[in-house]
Amino acid sequence: MIPQVSLIIARPPRGDENPLNSPKRKRSKRPARSYFGDRTIGKVAVIAGVSKATVSRFFNSPGLLSRDTSARVEQAIQRVGYIPNLLAGALTTKRTGLIAAVIPSIAQSIFSSTIQSVTDALAAEGYSVLLALTGSNDEYARRQVMSVVGRRPDGIILTGASLDAETRAQLRATRIPTIETWDLPDDPIDLAVGFSHAKVGAAVAKHALARGRKRTLVISATGARALERCRSFTQTMTGQGAPPPALCTFEGTTTFGKSRRALAAHLDGGGRPELVFCSSDIGAHGVIAELHERGIRIPDDIAVIGFGDLDFAADLAPSLTTVKIDGSAIAQKTAEFLLLRARKKRIANPIVDIGFELIVRSSG
Amino acid sequence: MIPQVSLIIARPPRGDENPLNSPKRKRSKRPARSYFGDRTIGKVAVIAGVSKATVSRFFNSPGLLSRDTSARVEQAIQRVGYIPNLLAGALTTKRTGLIAAVIPSIAQSIFSSTIQSVTDALAAEGYSVLLALTGSNDEYARRQVMSVVGRRPDGIILTGASLDAETRAQLRATRIPTIETWDLPDDPIDLAVGFSHAKVGAAVAKHALARGRKRTLVISATGARALERCRSFTQTMTGQGAPPPALCTFEGTTTFGKSRRALAAHLDGGGRPELVFCSSDIGAHGVIAELHERGIRIPDDIAVIGFGDLDFAADLAPSLTTVKIDGSAIAQKTAEFLLLRARKKRIANPIVDIGFELIVRSSG
DNA sequence: TGTTGTTATGCAACCGGTTACATGAAACCG
DNA sequence: CGGTTTCATGTAACCGGTTGCATAACAACA
Fold first, then answer.
1. pLDDT surpassing 80 at residue A26
2. So what's the pLDDT on residue A260?
3. Considering only CA atoms, which of A243, A211, A119 is closest in space to residue B100?
4. B151 touching chain A per CB within 8 A
5. Residue A36: its pLDDT value, please?
6. What distance in Å separates the CA atoms of residue B343 and residue B351, rounded to the nearest whole number?
7. Does A128 touch chain B (CB under 8 A)?
8. What is the pTM of this model?
9. Cβ–Cβ of A128/B151 closer than 8 Å?
10. Distance from residue A54 (CA) to nucleotide D19 (C1'), in Å?
11. Which residue in B88, B133, B285 is closest to A116 by CB distance?
């Protein structure tokens, strides 16, 4: 009894008059109202004079309801301004309608248009995209991924993030459909849609050699994939008797300025490459600007090759020779895979090599 | 006693043989297993020999548990490989830890770095970002926003999207903290962090006039904000006796190529502006490229002014005169606002003008 | 008219957590 | 040493939906 008294004293929240004689008053209502107050399916049901189940069916299997009921429910929904709580539904159905996109950065990233396409494609099917930015810190990436898993997405798209073996194993253990894109890992977690960075490096090297350019410079970010292209470029060049390429790298994302200054430093240091291979078109753009400034002719004195075939590549002067990756094809295949998994269909070939194309324009 | 027996009989988990004599068999188990199977808080609790509540407290108020219990729970978590289901928790707490970012596009958008910063800042507090891409279609934007609301985010960040009055009203009615960024609407939904596009247009116009340039060309995307800058630029110019600026617009996002071709067309059509004002640095970049091609001197013959102070602006040749918006300050204030709202603190000044800066470099 | 389907709905048991309140044990106090 | 706190934990009622099963009302059929 005494605790009861102390309880009454401790709780004079709102109006609450008349708390007398309720010998075993059960839990008073929870405090934290959601912003939605009581605009729930239950309220709609009461107003429409039907059960919660019927309102639920109004949304999920409208065909079951009679014309009359359907109309009453619809009215009630309007009156209340009801918007279904997708979280609550997801708890039962085990389908959150969430797709996680894990990506190092969205600011001027080569991947962002892929994410854009995937998001568009999936939005049409009612999915929303959860964004997880990993930066280039591995430990941080791990935490981001685990946090994402806690939200039980229906799918995870990994793009450009490098995860350690343990995180990959944990991810596999969740059994969440996972798609690695823009790469073809040796040991995929689940599905993969990408291309071989090694082949890209080799193809560019062969092109350079075919044009008789042997002294080369690589300007690259330090991402694992960019370095892989660089490695195979180097290997192919030296394999054909060319001298090992010079290498300038920088941390983080590629920018126009970083790349431009990298080239400037190299030239000032006495470097005289016949060809510069950049890890991104953005970098190539910076290189072209610097060469222009110095009055060096492209490609006669120095050829330039980029990566990505970004929207401006064809419009540069000279137009940029680069490697085109069909990002929207990756996006499309990725969306398709996710939908197949959602429908529990078998996927015959879970690893898709989307290929790439060396687009030879005037710069090299 | 009987329930015990029936329980034993009723549960021959697999193989479902022997369904005899269960007169009122209760609901068989639900079909759709989640990917996580039964790795739930309940399982952990059983293994650790405690109640679900205790496991929950292990995560949410670890201080309450005894050293011993805490250790046992932790072990059980490890053994099970348990990852808490944030959705389930959110249902009770009414805090989803989700922040929705509504934005027209992330591919090469001036806003994407703001989203990036906000995401980083909020990730540290345990929030995840839900991405909603609206495109430039109003109806589509409306649907995206409503779909987002169904997920009950703890906050909504509106950037660059234009919503009709009804959608805005609905959004206000949800009482979800909403921040409009990169703009200062007349009638904000809730909070706003931005700057006046009209003032930007006016400032650029005054700068042009101060340098004696009267014949101008505006190359702009058709977004509401870009047009607003254009409008006030025009008004200020004509107000000072200059002729009305010529105007080239294009739909969708600004690209290097679109902008470059727009200028080319204008010049070919006989236009002879003294200054070109672009709605984006990307566009200005294209303009500079075209002027270079034609051997037109910048800024002596034609000056160029951009918008955004993107990372390459200072590195162009000539370096680009542009309007700098402190996107990370917007992001920081936005994150701060959201956290304040989450903690139910009062916000003294809900509309923040972050200002802008005209950065005069060599191009104009 | 009794039987058997259909249809449209309601009932209530979940989903996987959180948390107000209850409880038992140990610590503290005069 | 009885009474009061404090501490650690358990119990069970939610959160807001979904859905298997039951049922009532009718139509169709023999």
1. no
2. 95
3. A119
4. yes
5. 76
6. 19
7. yes
8. 0.89
9. yes
10. 11
11. B133
- The confidence score (pLDDT) of residue B70 equals 96
Question: Strand A322-324 and strand A357-359: pairing?
Answer: antiparallel
Contact list in B for residue A36 (CB cut-off 8 A) is 152, 174-175
Which residue in chain B has the smallest CA separation from A292? B317
Question: Which residues, in sequence order, are CB contacts of B216 under 8 Å at separation 6+?
Answer: B208, B233, B237, B242, B245, B246, B273, B274, B275, B276, B277
**Phi and psi at residue A166, in whole multiples of 5°?**
-65, -45
Q: Do B292 and A131 touch (CB under 8 A)?
A: no
Question: What pLDDT digit, counting tens, does each position of A57-106 carry?
Answer: 999 999 999 999 999 999 999 999 999 999 999 999 999 999 999 999 88
In whole angstroms, give the CA distance from residue A303 to residue A277: 8
User: Tokens at residue A359, please?
Assistant: 């687009």
Burial code (b: 16+ CB inside 10 Å, e: under 16) for B160-170 equals bbbbeeebbeb
Residue of B134, B315, B343 to mutate when probing chain A, most A C-beta within 10 A: B315
Condensed to tens digits (0 to 9), the pLDDT of residues A120-140 reads: 999 999 999 999 999 878 888
Backbone angles phi, psi at B168, to 5 degrees: -60, -40
Tell me if chain A has a CB within 8 Å of the CB of B166: no
Residue A136: the pLDDT is: 78
Q: What is the mean pLDDT of residues A47-60?
A: 96
Q: How far apart are CA A255 and CA A219, in angstroms?
A: 11
Indicate yes or no: CB of A108 within 8 angstroms of CB of B112.
yes
Cβ-based contacts (< 7 Å) between A 39-78 and strand D: 39-42, 52-53, 56-57, 59-60
Low pLDDT (below 50) residues in chain B? 1-31
